[in-house]
Design goal:
Keywords: ATP-binding, Nucleotide-binding. The protein has 445 residues and is of the alpha/beta class. It has 20 helices and 10 strands. It is elongated and about 80 Å long.
């Protein structure tokens, strides 16, 4: 399966990068994109297709602290400490073959001397360069100059489209992926191939992604394996405390309008998070809202918020949002859900109104959740007659049947299909045959 993940559908990008590598007017290409988007996979695929000597190095945080650290294995032992002499020795070793290709993975982590060496090779045209750079990360000036001065062609690598993502998963699995499962995979990965791979392999190991009658189906949430969580966690470890505080607020209520987030956090923290590509700011109708740049960032941040901190953060949001526009059902429901578990007193009237909103919007499980919270807050006698707390779940037998045909099975009158009891509904429809099915459809319609 590991080799199958290399089969990315990026023929357009492949052709463009390969042309840049063969263009004598430039010295190569630099691929820029988010972590896991497939920069290295594409770069190595291009170099494999070229009939020439290729030398790859991979930069790390550790090698960054060592002058010429990433090229150290190409420098012969010497007692010299002269940077000029060391650069000359490394250059001589690198260009010992005619017109070599130097591949630099994560070039944003190059130390200054290594970046200078790379710049010299490109400027003097003694070799071709293909480099990958993670977007949102600081890059050495010598590396930035390579594409600004047109020595390298810069290519922005976007995430896979939904069609490309599904095609990749189906190619890896060797069979079609169920539509709903494909939607979950797409929403969870947002087209990031590395995230997609971790999700598929983690879900298979957990037994939630299985093949049924030749079709792959995901049952339950997509599993986020420890490896992927570690990858995202490493990214968050380098975030400033004030920025992480803004991320924690957003993780409690996403999307959030930018003014609210800036009021609770700060303009500087929100700006820094956007520049680091942890969040994105976009127009949503007449509002400007903030979202995580990838859904998994939100999940990772939430896992790093304790119960007490979560209650306090939701309380801050409630205090700000209750003074904002509550004229829409979505705004009332959002505020009500935040208020259920926060350090602010329960607003029973809000919970009851939001429960009605949820029922009218045909979201009975949410309506029941809000209604029961209202009951717990002392609002038992103000629950709406249509509230699912009176017609679903454990209270189903008490619901009047006068609106249903006399022969309708009891399980249908209790709305199990609205409360997640799909296996029971399926059993009733199968046992009852076409007549029951037709009757149920007629009632629901």
């Amino acid at each position: 399966m590991a080799r199958s993940w290399q089969l990315l559908d990026r023929q357009t990008e492949f052709g463009a990068v390969r042309s840049a590598m063969a263009d004598d007017s430039t010295c190569g290409a630099v691929l820029v994109g988010a972590a896991g988007v497939g920069k290295t996979t594409l770069a190595r695929a291009v170099t494999r297709s070229l009939d020439t000597d290729v030398r790859w190095v991979a930069c790390t945080e550790s090698s960054r602290s060592i002058p010429l650290g990433v090229f150290a294995h190409w420098i012969q032992a010497s007692g010299s400490r002269d940077p000029t002499a060391l650069i000359a020795a490394a250059r001589e070793s690198i260009v010992s073959t005619a017109n070599p290709i130097i591949g630099i993975d994560d070039a944003h982590l190059l130390d200054d001397l290594s970046a200078t060496l790379l710049h010299q090779i490109a400027v003097d045209h003694v070799g071709h360069v293909v480099a990958t750079v993670r977007s949102g990360e600081p890059v050495p000036d010598a590396v930035t100059a390579l594409w600004k001065d047109n020595y390298l062609q810069r290519f922005e690598l976007d995430p896979l489209t939904q069609r490309q993502s599904i095609a990749l998963v189906e190619k890896v699995l060797g069979g079609p992926l169920e539509g709903l499962s494909a939607d979950v995979m797409w929403r969870s990965s947002r087209g990031n191939p590395l995230f997609l791979r971790h999700l598929v392999e983690g879900s298979m190991q957990a037994g939630s992604l299985t093949e049924v009658n030749g079709v792959w189906q995901l049952r339950g949430d997509a599993v986020v394996p420890s490896g992927l969580d570690t990858l995202i966690g490493d990214r968050l470890e380098h975030v400033d405390d004030t920025v992480f505080s803004a991320l924690k607020v957003l993780s409690m209520c996403e999307p959030l309008d930018i003014d609210t987030l800036c009021e609770i956090a700060s303009d500087e923290a929100v700006d820094a998070a956007e520049i680091a590509d942890l969040i994105r700011v976009e127009r949503d109708g007449v509002r400007t809202v903030v979202r995580f740049s990838h859904p998994m960032f939100g999940e990772a941040v939430r896992r790093r918020v304790g119960t007490a901190s979560g209650r306090r953060l939701r309380g801050k949001l409630v205090r700000v949002l209750r003074d904002r526009d509550l004229g829409t059902a979505s705004n009332r429901i959002r505020l009500a859900r935040l208020s259920i578990d926060c350090d602010e007193p329960v607003d029973v009237d809000l919970l009851v109104t939001a429960a009605k909103d949820a029922v009218y919007l045909s979201n009975l499980p949410l309506g029941e959740e809000l209604a029961r919270a209202a009951v717990d807050g002392g609002g038992a006698y103000r629950l709406p007659p249509c509230c699912p707390a009176r017609c679903c779940g454990r209270d189903a037998p008490n619901r009047p049947r006068k609106y249903w045909p006399p022969s309708t099975p009891t399980i249908l009158t209790s709305y199990p299909w609205c409360c997640g009891a799909f296996p029971d509904l399926h059993r009733i429809l199968v046992d009852g045959g076409e007549r029951t099915c037709a009757r149920a459809v007629g009632v629901v319609a």
